[in-house]
Each structure stands twice: as C-alpha cells, then as structure tokens.
Amino acid sequence: MQPIATLHSPFVDKFGLPRQPGLISACEAYIELLPPFNSMDYVRGLEAFSHIWLIFQFHQHKDKPHKALVRPPRLGGNDKVGVFSTRASYRPNNLGMSVVKLHRIEVQGSRILLFIACPDLIHGTPIVDIKPYIAYSDCVTISVDSFADKAPKETLSIRFSDRATSQLALLADQPYGDHIEMLIRETLRFDPRPAYKPDKDDKEYAIRLYDLDIKWRVIQGEALVEALVKLPHGD
C-alpha cells in the first residue's frame, strides 16, 4: 500500500499517547497529503463532513511479529484476549483505524493540510486512506462493548512544581505555548503508566510532547510535573 498522507502530532512517542481518539481537547494535529495526492481534487467536498475516518499503518511495528493473545490496558494489563478483540497495535497487517473531528482544510502553497482534533496516533504515522464519517451508518446506538463499555476514568490530579511552572512561563513565545499546560494536564489525567503498575510506584517518567520531555511522577494519587526539558533539535 502507498501512504497518501503523513500525520503531524505533538505525540512523538507511544508512551503517553491517548489510547483512543477524542479524549484530549488541547491538541490539534494535522494530516499532510503526499504527492501525487497533494491536490484539492482529492479532498473536494470533504470539508462538508465534521468527522473523518483515518486508515493508517502501525509503522513502528512493520518488522515485528504479532501475537494471537494480547494484554489490553482496560483489563489491567495482565489478562489475555485475542488480538482481534482489541485495538492492539501488533496486528497481522499492521493496520489501524480512528475517527477524528475535521476542523478545517488549508492550502499552503503546494501543501494540503487537514487539521484535526487529537488522534490516538503518533507523529509520522503513514495514512493510507481517508473516508468521511457518516452517522446514520457508522454510529451504532445500541451495542455491547465488553470490557470497553465506558470511557476511561480520570484517575490523577495534576500539580506543577515551582520549577515546572517557571519553565512553562518561558515557553510563552513558542507556537505551542498557549496550550502546552492544558495538553500536559489532559495527557496525565488518565494515568498513562502501564496498567499493571502498583499504586506505590514513585518512579520518574518522561513523556515526549513536541520538543519537550515532560518529567513527572505519581505521589499519593497525584501526578507531580517536575520539569519540562527542551530537547535539542534532532533528538
């Protein structure tokens, strides 16, 4: 399959990535159409739809074997179920699909950009197809959703250290400066740590957002953001 577009997102690594689309509001991503698909002819009329389906490749797993049984986070990270009953990324054909809100389409010279709400995909994900979301056929109002019958709970309150607060102020002139605090809060509130981690886990974690390493740890049910480390270009 030939990728038709590439995703641009603040989520550079898998760790911390929202486990489903639509969970985070303080993040805007965009899809850039690749040649020869960077023509408005390919997306003419798409702006009339509020949401779109993205069919994509789990490109970091292309050369890694899949498993028949996987451990979904919603079951605590220990119980196993079949890969086809989950949205796990290690799959026989490395394909995924997500529905996202389409904000707008912009033409910037030869670039065609589709700005979307926060997806559950990392930066650089190859998009292999785009389809409009159609509510009367795509929305199932009565369904049985097994272990994923409810949205994940917000389990952590968030606090910034004095150091992190000062570093936030220094980011005000960055393109992401006006929403980076909210993005951090929304990312951490669902507790992105592995589901099997014990309650008394006080390890320091790092989540990569844009060109920042967000250093944080959990203390008595509260996520403490300790530092925002700006990474050198190319890291």
Structural class by secondary-structure content: mainly beta
Number of helices: 3
Main CATH class of the largest domain? Mainly Beta
Question: What's the domain count?
Answer: 2
Q: Which value, in Å, is the CA radius of gyration?
A: 19 Å
Q: Identify the overall geometry.
A: globular
CA-CA gap between termini: 29 Å
The CATH homology group name of the largest domain? YaeB-like
The portion of residues forming beta strands comes to 25-35%
Architecture (CATH level 2) name of the largest domain: Beta Barrel
Mean pLDDT, as a whole number? 87
Poorly predicted segments: none
Strand order of the largest sheet: 1-2-7-6-3-8
Strand and helix layout:
Elements: E1 5-8, E2 28-33, E3 51-57, E4 69-70, E5 81-82, E6 95-108, E7 111-117, E8 126-132, H1 135-138, E9 157-160, H2 162-170, H3 180-188, E10 205-209, E11 212-219, E12 222-230
Parallel strand pairs: 9-12
Antiparallel strand pairs: 1-2, 1-8, 2-7, 3-6, 3-8, 4-5, 6-7, 10-11, 11-12
